[in-house]
Amino acid sequence: MKRKVIIILSILFIIFMTALFIYYLVKGDASRWQVALGGILVSALPLCLLRMKQNPFNIPIIVGYYLFLFGSLYLGSIASFYLHYTWWDSSVHFYKGMLIGFVGISLYKRLIPEKVRQDVSSGILFLFVFSLAVLAGVLWEIYEFVGDLTFTHTMQRGGNTDTMYDLLCGVAGGLIVAFYSLVRKKTV
Prior knowledge:
2 domains, globular, 8 helices
């Protein structure tokens, strides 16, 4: 079932982004065709999971990944939600923090054998999940900064203020999932 979901979502998103790429390339809108081209590449990433013997990510995380791509690439950049709705950027970063937190929980379950997990403190799990979400936020802000230096000049319109709000929202999302992992670990 997971395999089919990955294949279907990847193909649909690749087709969608390819159509946008061609449309904006013909139209001469460099900012949007570049985003669409990036969308083609990142929508194909989950296909790499098919090569794994045991995919650590469940269907909600896979669907969540594509929701993130749709919200950030299409709605945010191509449909200009980032420009028209000031709350959109912060919401996407908050969502990303939560998504990466859940990815951290999945990786923990995949990489740590069940026998060993019993001896891992809930604090270590909390730090792992939280740190992964924070790292993702920092790497995203570096991506935005480099993108503005080289291609778009539109990713960090608010400068340092935008960067700090984005980081704070991502940290808040990751913190919520880290607390969730802490509570779940203590009850299990």
